[in-house]
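FORM 12-B: Structure-to-Sequence Request
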């Protein structure tokens, strides 16, 4: 388990983003409403069904869960086992596996990249009405996390095809 919110496999802005999300310093509708900003609705603009909290926006919204399901499958992980972790554990990038510090860092980097891209892209979707399908999302997460981790990891060479096809080898 990595206690720190710094992970040198990914850019600092991603760690800062996660830090803000953990403290609810985040412009989701529920938080804006609590601060007295007058809103038409606090419902999630993606599913129009639940209150838009940080947890909902980044994880449990059915539209977002479709992306997580693909991301977890890419790592060979049964997504239902992730339901047992608290949202804060997920945001900290904790893994359900016992693994080395290196592996924990790789996993955290991938999780944080996913949270970051989900926020960035779904935000754009809401404001620009652009579409970001779960498959495109998975591809973006694979490419961006690879570029960040492979470039910054000095101790091990990370091959793109391994990252894409069999990333669980980095969790051994
Ligand atoms: Zn939703």
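FORM 12-B RESPONSE
SEQUENCE OUT:
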């Amino acid at each position: 388990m990595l206690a720190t919110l710094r992970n040198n496999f990914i850019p600092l802005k991603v760690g800062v983003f996660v830090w803000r999300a953990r403290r609810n310093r985040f412009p989701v509708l529920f938080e804006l409403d609590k601060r007295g900003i007058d809103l038409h609705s606090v419902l999630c603009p993606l599913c129009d069904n639940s209150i838009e909290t940080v947890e909902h926006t980044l994880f449990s919204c059915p539209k977002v869960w479709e992306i997580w399901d693909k991301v977890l499958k890419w790592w060979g992980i049964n997504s239902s086992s992730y339901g047992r972790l608290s949202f804060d554990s997920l945001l900290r990038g904790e893994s359900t596996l016992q693994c080395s510090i290196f592996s924990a860092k790789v996993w955290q980097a991938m999780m944080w990249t996913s949270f970051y891209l989900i926020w960035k892209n779904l935000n754009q979707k809401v404001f620009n009405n652009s579409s970001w399908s779960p498959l495109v999302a998975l591809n973006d997460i694979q490419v961006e996390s690879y570029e960040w981790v492979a470039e910054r990891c000095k101790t091990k060479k990370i091959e793109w095809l391994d990252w894409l096809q069999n990333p669980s080898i980095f969790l051994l």
